[in-house]
Design goal:
The chain is α+β, with helices and mostly antiparallel strands and 312 residues long. Helices cover 36% and strands 27% of the residues. The chain has 2 domains: 2-29 and 53-162, 2-Layer Sandwich (Ribosomal Protein S5, domain 2), CATH 3.30.230.10; 183-301, Alpha-Beta Plaits (2-Layer Sandwich), CATH 3.30.70.
Length: 312
């Protein structure tokens, strides 16, 4: 709440006439992802420990007084039409409010798309949060989260962020004791993997069984920030399916393991692989080792918040 109060002062002091807000929309990694069989609604039940990281898209939302409709401007690799989750989020917010909105949205895309990092979902959460802020918290918390869940299973998480447990199809989010800002390296082979197709492959070929006790031991170990212990508890049911669909993912995993990371795992449905490091120096060394193995390699850290105002 304090960050939002500071943002109010900043908006009034710098851009009140523009009636806009600029938010960071962070990526996430799945430290634990246990996937069950398909449900009657076509989704899968999951238990997942999600962690936001400080690789962020930037989303600017401006109410267009006297304007009409919704406009989207995109910088970077993301669709600019109706399939973009920013526009879908604004439309869902408008429908929930029962009145049309006129707004301009600008998206600066830094998170790779279809990468298992939740970039589109985070962008959608940023638009929902921004519109609700600009309209005086017109939507209550429960309705905001319900609207977020209608857009995608990961969207509610990004309204919370940090270290959180996701259940149901992932939309039921419980904040956990926060992990410290551990360094990670993200490596992506440069081609996306459609989530639905990975789940279909999982249904056909299965995945490794979850550890006894589920994510409990991991959840208990995260606040202490012991990278070596956390690494031993990482798990992803979808990793095998992602590797079968894209052999480059398996190659990245092998390169990462040989590079000496504390822990290595596919995030979400892939294809991004994250490497958990014990410190900044190790993360820097790992980044160098992976540069030749993947076209997209970036260092990041665990982040304690979801979508939030740009400061400074």
């Amino acid at each position: 709440m304090l960050r939002w109060m500071r943002c109010v002062q900043w908006v009034k002091g710098e851009a009140m006439a523009l009636n806009k807000v600029i938010l960071e929309a962070p990526a996430k990694i799945n430290l634990y992802l246990e996937v069950g069989p398909p449900r009657s609604d076509g989704y899968h039940s999951v238990r997942t420990v999600m962690q936001s990281v400080d690789l962020c898209d930037i989303v600017e939302v401006e109410l267009a007084e006297g304007g009409s409709g919704l406009e989207l401007e995109v910088e970077g690799d993301a669709p600019s039409g109706e399939e973009n989750l920013c526009l879908r989020a604004a439309g869902a917010f408008s429908s929930a409010m029962g009145r049309p909105l006129a707004a301009r949205i600008r998206l600066s895309k830094r998170i790779p798309k279809a990468a298992g990092l939740g970039g589109g979902s985070s962008d959608a959460a940023a638009v929902l949060r921004a519109l609700n802020f600009l309209l005086g918290e017109a939507m209550g918390r429960e309705e905001l989260f319900r609207t977020a869940a209608s857009l995608g299973s990961d969207v509610p998480f990004f309204l919370v962020g940090g270290t959180s447990l996701g259940e149901g199809r992932g939309e039921r989010v419980t904040p956990l004791r926060q992990a410290p800002p551990l360094p990670v390296v993200l490596a992506n082979p440069g081609t996306g993997l459609p989530t639905a197709e990975v789940y279909r492959r999982f249904d056909l070929s299965g995945g490794d069984g979850p550890p006894a006790g589920g994510p409990g031991a991991l959840i208990e170990s995260l606040p202490a920030g012991d990278a070596q212990k956390i690494a031993s508890l990482l798990f992803n049911s979808l990793q095998r399916a992602a590797c079968e669909m894209m052999p480059e993912v398996g190659v990245l995993l092998e390169v990462a393991k040989k590079a000496g990371a504390e822990g290595v795992l596919v995030s979400g449905s892939g294809p991004t692989v994250f490497l958990l490091a014990g410190g900044v120096e190790q993360a820097t060394a790992l980044e160098g080792e992976l540069k030749g193995a993947a076209p997209y390699v970036v260092r990041a850290r665990f982040r304690s918040s979801g979508v939030s105002p740009v400061t400074g």
